[in-house]
Write a sequence for this structure.
């Protein structure tokens, strides 16, 4: 289900609109809103494509999508609880016009959950408007350490095959030489184009892929941390934990505790 089929959010005559849903199903269609959009994942995980970048939202993480940004939802876990909030923002606010993906601190989490009482309310409830205005005004202060957990989709067609190979074989110890043969590019050309298109080196790109996949596996609760580590290609739990901490700024055990 695409919620925007039933409620035209931008046509509502109110500055804020709250929409909470369990097991939300979206159509995989690119669209945009005049309002900014806060997407909070209370449980499960969700992929979101915004302006050509794919972002992963693990449990207890949120994304701020600026107004006018072309975006869509991608695959997600079978059971997911999404909390989506729309807001008019001032043109002068730099923060509200930039994409942000971040771990939700306890205070903001409680404010978001409190807002559920106004879900799908199309009237201008004075209490709701006052509360939601405070939430969105304080949002920049809640985002202290934005996660850079995203993968940029390359536009250069010469990277189509090597990127596909990377996504299908991220668990293996890949060499730049292997991708050079697949892409029919020299090592120097491939490294230059890859960095330009994705914003990162091959090793960093593969690391992000592995961590993203590990978050999916941890979220399912079917595998232990050690099983997850080997499943995504790490030779030891220690190596996986170091890599996870570098990317997520937290330990895999911290994430496991929030999913149980």
């Amino acid at each position: 289900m695409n919620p925007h089929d039933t409620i035209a959010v931008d046509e509502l005559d109110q500055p804020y609109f709250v929409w909470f849903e369990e097991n939300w199903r979206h159509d995989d269609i690119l669209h945009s809103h005049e309002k900014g959009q806060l997407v909070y994942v209370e449980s499960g995980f969700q992929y979101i494509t915004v302006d050509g970048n794919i972002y992963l939202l693990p449990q207890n993480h949120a994304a701020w999508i600026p107004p006018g940004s072309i975006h869509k939802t991608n695959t997600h876990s079978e059971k997911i609880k999404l909390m989506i909030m729309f807001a008019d923002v001032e043109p002068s606010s730099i923060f509200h016009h930039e994409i942000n993906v971040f771990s939700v601190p306890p205070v903001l989490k409680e404010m978001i959950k409190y807002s559920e009482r106004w879900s799908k309310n199309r009237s201008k409830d004075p209490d709701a408007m006052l509360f939601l205005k405070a939430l969105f005004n304080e949002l920049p202060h809640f985002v202290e350490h934005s996660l850079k957990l995203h993968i940029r989709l390359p536009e250069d067609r010469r990277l189509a095959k090597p990127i596909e190979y990377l996504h299908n074989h991220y668990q293996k110890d890949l060499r730049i030489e292997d991708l050079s043969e697949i892409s029919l590019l020299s090592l120097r050309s491939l490294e230059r184009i890859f960095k330009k298109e994705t914003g990162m080196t091959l090793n960093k790109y593969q690391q992000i892929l592995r961590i993203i996949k590990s978050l999916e596996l941890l979220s399912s609760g079917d595998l232990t941390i050690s099983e997850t580590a080997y499943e995504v290609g790490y030779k030891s739990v220690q190596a996986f934990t170091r890599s996870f901490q570098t990317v997520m700024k937290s330990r895999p055990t911290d994430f496991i505790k929030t999913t149980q």
